[in-house]
């Protein structure tokens, strides 16, 4: 199993779409930047047939340092969560679309 990188995605765009390598990298960077800006502003990003990226807000809560056992507050924060589509779930579980 290998990791999908920006370079490998750009290479796939180059070979399958037919854009030049520079255009492929620019296209990929534009898509990723658009997604990042939407998530920064709190919007969800839905890619049909793939899944949805959402920003979830977590409130303040108590936590415990596992090393010392000292209780400490965990500050409110935002996290990005991904929910796969039914099609992606089926494909990753060996089923058909």
From TrEMBL:
Signal peptide: none annotated. This is Integration host factor subunit alpha. CDD domains: IHF_A. The keyword RNA-binding does not apply. The keyword DNA-binding applies. PANTHER family: DNA-BINDING PROTEIN HU, INTEGRATION HOST FACTOR SUBUNIT ALPHA. Keywords: DNA recombination, DNA-binding, Transcription, Transcription regulation, Translation regulation. It comes from Acetobacter fallax.
